[in-house]
Amino acid sequence: MSWSFETDSEFQAQLDWIETFTKEEIEPLDLVFRGPGDPWDPKSPAAKAMQPLRDIVKEKRLWACHLGPELGGEGYGQVKLGLMNEILGRSRFGPSVFGCQAPDSGNAEILAHFGTTEQKEKYLQPLLDGKIASCYSMTEPQAGSDPAEFTCTASKDGDEWVINGQKWFASHARFSEFLLVMVVTDPNKPIHEGASIILVEQGTPGMEIIRNAAVGPYVEQGDGVHAYINFDNCRVPSENMLGEEGQGFLVAQTRLGGGRVHHAMRSVGVLKKAMDMMCERVLSRTTKGELLANKQFTQDKIADTYTQILQYRLHVLYTAWLIDKYKEYNREVRKEIAAIKAATPKVLQEVIYRAMHLHGSIGVSDETPLMTMWASIPELGMVDGPSEVHKVTVARTILRDYEAAPDLFPSYHTPTQRAQAMAKYGHYLDEA
Ligand SMILES: Cc1cc2nc3c(=O)[nH]c(=O)nc-3n(C[C@H](O)[C@H](O)[C@H](O)COP(=O)(O)OP(=O)(O)OC[C@H]3O[C@@H](n4cnc5c(N)ncnc54)[C@H](O)[C@@H]3O)c2cc1C
Q1: 85 and 173 together in one domain
Q2: Span from the CA of 379 to the centroid of ligand 1 (angstroms)
């Protein structure tokens, strides 16, 4: 029996270094580089600014720790990644400086598993080195949560695949060297057996970005990074199919499970940062002759915030531990991944709202990071599937372990149970 909430001292020393490095060297990047492509666009000035920091991270052997040593990573399990990511989540740039940014991290795993030698040479190494960007494109303008509604197809013509249809919200497509596109290859089969993933190189004739959407109204319209794409007889060589035909969802699982849990881990970092701000503020502000911190309404908010963050953090780390133990394809593990995915926007909403509220006007202004945090909550309830879909997974998995009552009355019907209990122990009463 082993059960522990401790981090070994060697790894704790690394986490302490990561925390100082993130606060002192990485968080300032957020204040300088605010373009919609930052920090992912390798051609943005931010990429240059990140390079010396990335070199330090590589020297410290903390680069792309989610990957195995054969791919230049450290093969960290999810618990270690969780502890790291909850620090990196403090900054938009954290994951990129440490080589574990989405969607490139998941795309690299897909290429490593399913790419040809040539594809790996051309794309995998530069991607792992942070020199190029990549895109994962699945959502369509008419369908996101329900893949059965996907209509973008690829049909075989000689030794080529011909893609026709549209994709929507394909993040980073405009500056990616390649896109991994989910296409319907057999419309007569259920989607989980009739879809495949195809690598499309940037600039392939027949692929056109119609426009780029942004999250929120904060950048010039059309200057966002989420592409609306049209494929019109776009031809790619047959070896660009990753995995077998019809195995698109199996291939996609290589990235989605990890991605969901990493979003949650980084959200722990955001939550802690919001709580730090909340606590500093209430200790700095006086109203009606006393510190805001001394008001019971404030104390209620601080206590609820602390408890919620701790509960969420432990749930995330528990899920990470489960993945390390059983791998993410296990039913129970998928239940927890879905549960934390659904919990993420809710806990962020409650904690960040409290932090903003306690700051008053400055909390809703552009003079603290809180409003930026607030604006990112809805997207976390949407990326990698909306909360409702994940809650359905949780509920269905839970309900599999239960059965309907065998009778008209519930199995916990007190009169029935009392009669059974009396039959077992009632004679003690009679004797008395
Ligand atoms: C910032 C951001 C980045 C993204 N990046 C990418 C990317 O790189 N590649 C990519 O392919 N996609 C990407 N997406 C798209 C994302 O995967 C979809 O938004 C998501 O799958 C939901 O699809 P949808 O937007 O079509 O919404 P819909 O499927 O139309 O869902 C809208 C709403 O309907 C309700 N709903 C849906 N299904 C159910 C259900 N079963 N039960 C009850 N209610 C339900 C929910 O309230 C849901 O929020 C990104 C999205 C965002 C916000």
Answers
A1: no
A2: 9
Pocket test for ligand 1, best of 105, 107, 139 (most atoms within 8 A of CB): 139
Give distance in angstroms: CA of 346 to centre of ligand 1.
16
CATH code of the domain covering residue 207: 2.40.110.10
Task: Tell me, yes or no, whether 328 lies in a domain.
Answer: yes
**What range defines the domain where residue 190 resides?**
133-242
Name residue, tokens 């994709």. Answer: 167
Nearest-CA residue for ligand 1 atom 51 is 383
Q: What is the pLDDT of residue 217?
A: 76
**61 in any annotated domain:** yes
CA distances to 18, 43, 71, 76, 336 from 84, in Å: 8, 27, 19, 10, 20
Predicted local distance difference test score (pLDDT) of residue 253: 83
Are residues 17 and 147 located together in one domain of the fold?
no
229: closest CA among 254, 256, 259, 204?
204
How far apart are the CA of 382 and the centre of ligand 1, in A? 5
Looking at the structure of the chain, the number of domains it has is: 3
CA 20 to chain centre: 24
What is the predicted pLDDT for the residue at 38?
93
CA 142 – ligand 1 centroid, Å? 10
Q: Clarify whether residues 273 and 375 are in a common domain.
A: yes
Report yes or no on 274 lying in a domain. Answer: yes
Residue ranges in the chain whose pLDDT is less than 70: 255-259, 328-329
Using alpha carbons, select from 312, 305, 308 the residue that is nearest to residue 281: 305
120 falls within a domain: no
- Cα(381) to ligand 1 centroid in Å equals 8
Taking the CA of residue 171 as reference, the ligand 1 atom at the shortest distance is 8
Rounded CA gap, 419 and 411, in Å?
13
Nearest to 320 by CA among 56, 3, 80: 80
* Final residue of a structural domain among 189, 217, 242: 242
Residue minimizing CA distance to atom 53 of ligand 1:
379
Which protein residues are within 6 Å of ligand 1, measured from CB?
Answer: 103, 136-139, 143-145, 169-171, 215, 226, 379, 382-383, 385-386, 388-389, 392
